[in-house]
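Just scan my protein:

——
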Amino acid sequence: MKIVLFDLDGTLIDSERYYFSIWQELMAREGYQLGKDFYQQVVGSPTSVLKEKFQQHFGEIPMFDDLYKEFMCRRKQAQKDAVFPMTKGCREYLEYLSEQAITCGIVTSSYQKEAENILENMGLASYFAFGVYGDQVNMGKPDSEIYLKAIELAKQPLEQIIVYEDSPNGILAAVHAGLSCVHIKNFVDPTPEIEQLVESSCIDFFEVLDGLTLSSD
């Protein structure tokens, strides 16, 4: 393993739970009940398809554009304030990879400026040599474009690259690009179909580190 690629929201940081609570509040205000089962299906989706998925599920939502603007405003403030907890073991695993001289990259649907701000505010930016962001691709996850761009930047054979993702959309994007993927079971519950696609599923990065320790014994 020479390259490790990380998704951001829900993988390195436990942000999806916070975003879900905002959407629940906004939708309830308009008389809609937003359930976790549906929201898990849209986690990792690019902004361009979020409205479409919401309206396919709920029907026409007259105030959706206003709700989305309010969501983005609150999301940006949360990112600025760095309110999200890191996934357990995140920093320890990144430190381990740094000690092993393994290159790390960030591959996220978030736009570059907001993703870099989060990493900087949480003291994680220095661990990453490169990134591919949602505003640098035409098609978002589950399309494989974002990971194909990451492969180009990595300049390593596919078998030397491992991906960590939390959402079905992200996992599908990585697997369709020919990459091995580990599922971080943070906010999104794994389905049997997704479980068959990944190398393994871990609760957090302490479990990832435990697996490395066991394999080296």
User: Anything to note?
Assistant: The chain has two domains: 3-14+85-215, 15-81. The chain has a mean pLDDT of 92. The CA atoms of residues 54 and 61 lie 8 Å apart. The radius of gyration is 17 Å.
